Amino acid sequence: MRRFFFLTRGHAPLLLFLIAALFSACDKDGNTEPVIPDPTEGLKKVRDFADGNYTVTAWNETGELRLGYTKVYFTVQNKTGAFIENAELSAFPEMDMGMMKHSTPRAEITKVAGKALYETYYAFLMYSGQGDGKWYYDLEYTISDALSSNYTVGGSFGNEEIDVKNVFRPDGKTERKVIQLLVAVDGSDKRYVVTLVEPQKPTVGVNDVTAYIHERIDANTYNPVENFTLKLDPRMPSMENHSSPNNVDLTWDVAGKIYRGKVNFSMTGYWTLNLILQNDRGETLYGNVITGDTAASSLLFEIEF
Ligand SMILES: [Cu+2]
């Protein structure tokens, strides 16, 4: 489905807009509209959505959508290539698995301050092809004219197939765990999604470790959860499952709206990040402590570098 709409309520606002545009194009310095600089420096294109009037382009650091946490930026450009600063964007990703459809944890698309750029993230629960599923993406944009709230232009892109790639350890073959959907063991039957965000570029020593927790309300609705705790125990399975000192559990960071802690990688190699999910009363919802008999938590992410 594609549609394009152009609304005016009476012609007076349009006329005023045209007169204003004429004057701003011929001001006394002979300047036209200020040129908005390219906001995509350092970003790679994921893909374009173009309808002949506007082009919405998705960008990020890798140029790919991936299983788990994926940051996405957007630009909106008109026919002349000028970057649009006052657009509003909304999107809905949906995986079609034949017998069922589901979306995934995600944020609203919001404006990046001071740039003609918009941002969001996705926490993709599955990759394209997993369970024979395919990901589709609906995207809508509206652009209001700054001079008249009666003038709005917009469009939408529906059922665009997107490619969400699996993530691997450095060998390029072994799957790496970066996101987990779980059912709480407290008898509530509540379902949560825990998504590893950082470290994206792990180094030896103390790294920031961040994660999102969403409660799955239904297949399309995932609400961010605040004030839980993720107790952290990093281990190195190839070296007698040793841990490291000076790790910090992940707690809710109000300002960043994310769970934040510290992980100390005392050497390079393959590490498991073993977690225990606890609610705001300190009750365990999922995961377990590591003992001599139990080498890993049931809530676990993987890092190798
Ligand atoms: Cu799926």
Bound molecules: copper (II) ion
**Total number of β-strand segments?**
22
Order of helices and strands: EHEEEEEEEEEEEEEEEEEEEEE
Please indicate the percent range of residues in DSSP E strands (runs of 2 or more): over 45%
Instruction: State the shape.
Output: elongated
CATH class of the largest domain: Mainly Beta
Q: Percentage of helical residues?
A: under 10%
Category by helix and strand content: mainly beta
Flag low-confidence runs. 1-10, 22-29
Q: What's the N-to-C terminus distance?
A: 44 Å
SS element count, helices = 1
Instruction: Output the radius of gyration.
Output: 23 Å
- Our count of domains comes out at 2
Q: Main sheet?
A: 10 strands, antiparallel
CATH architecture of the largest domain: Sandwich
CATH topology of the largest domain: Immunoglobulin-like
Mean pLDDT: 90
